[in-house]
Design goal:
about 325 residues; alpha/beta; Helicase, Ruva Protein, domain 3; 2 domains; 15 helices; about 50% helix; elongated
Length: about 325
């Protein structure tokens, strides 16, 4: 969809949880558009005081308010000929939304305190992590602006729903981080990548990049191992998890595929609880029990020639529990 919509001048609404990479998608659209040689201007609406948003977006004339000592060109004028990426668009006040709709329809802006319109040629890409449909129904977001923006909508799934992307992202981030900090990239062991694919990433792509960066900057002479990352995952295991809540279900939600998704979520939560119980039980085990467990683990690993994932399946535990046992028993 990115490559199909990029050559057009249509506005695009990018929807996804915080940290999923909405700005990366916007940059990709700009990079493959006919405006790629012009400016890409990213703006976070949530980071601008509501009282100054109108002036920052559309500019102001000298003397239009206290402190306006000179004419100011707003973001639309600054991005003229290029692309304006407006993140957190749901934070715009209703009056600013009305002016934004006019710009989308005509390309004309009027600076605060001005009396003449200024024509601009800007492509708008907008992003949000909120439910704009609900906001439109509640009167918090203009319906006409929503329909104008959502003609093309790109929904970015959270990282936990696309674990197959994680090895590619790790490689990409590791390369750029090593260049940025002038450090050697010793890579990640296979077990470390498997462990990262098994994590639920509540902070999405942003959290993954931060972890890769910290691991590379703090790594020694060997590739980064699963054991190096385990303290981080243990600290963050239950962060951002949404436990299932019982409520009435619609007919669509009772479709087999949706029931399957719900069961997968429940099993993941049960697995997390079991892992925590495993950690607690380590403090109460007797030596004899520990010896039997060590033998079971060793036998399973030998049976599958060291394949940890198959051994974990036979033992009936998750791969991260097996890694914790291996560390505990120094196997």
């Amino acid at each position: 969809l990115i490559f199909r919509v990029a050559p057009t001048d249509l506005p695009v609404l990018i929807v996804g949880e915080s940290g999923t990479g909405k700005e990366l998608v916007a940059k990709a659209i700009h990079r493959h558009s006919k405006r790629s040689e012009k400016r890409f201007l990213p703006i976070n609406a949530a980071a601008i005081a509501p009282g100054t948003l109108e002036s920052e977006l559309f500019g102001h004339e000298r003397g239009s308010f206290t402190g306006a000592s000179a004419r100011h060109r707003g973001f639309f004028e600054q991005a003229d000929g290029g692309t304006l990426f407006l993140d957190e668009i749901a934070e715009l006040p209703i009056p600013v939304q009305a002016k934004l709709l006019r710009v989308l329809e005509t390309g004309d802006i009027m600076r605060v305190g001005g009396s003449e319109t200024v024509h601009t040629n800007v492509r708008l890409l907008a992003a949000t992590n909120r439910d704009l449909i609900g906001g439109a129904l509640d009167g918090q977001f203009r319906q006409d602006l929503y329909y104008r923006l959502s003609a093309v909508k790109i929904k970015i799934p959270p990282l936990r729903e696309r674990p197959e992307d994680i090895p590619i992202l790790i490689y990409k981030f590791a390369q750029s981080i090593s260049l940025e900090h002038s450090v050697e990239n010793r890579g990640f062991a296979e077990a470390a990548i498997v462990r990262m694919m098994d994590y639920h990433w509540p902070g999405n792509v942003r959290e993954l990049r931060n972890l890769v960066e910290n691991a590379i900057l703090l790594s020694g002479d060997a590739p980064i191992s699963a054991e190096d990352l385990e303290p981080y995952f243990e600290d963050h295991e239950l962060m951002g998890r949404a436990l299932p809540v019982l409520r009435e279900r619609t007919a669509d939600e009772m479709m087999p595929q949706n029931i399957e998704r719900a069961l997968i979520l429940i099993f993941k939560e049960l697995e997390a609880i079991r892992d925590r119980l495993d950690r607690l039980s380590e403090h109460f085990e007797q030596p004899k029990t520990q010896d039997l467990e060590r033998r079971r683990i060793t036998a399973a690993l030998e049976r599958y020639d060291g394949d940890k994932r198959k051994a974990a399946e036979e033992l009936g535990v998750s791969i991260r529990t097996l890694y914790r046992w291996l560390k505990k028993y120094r196997l």
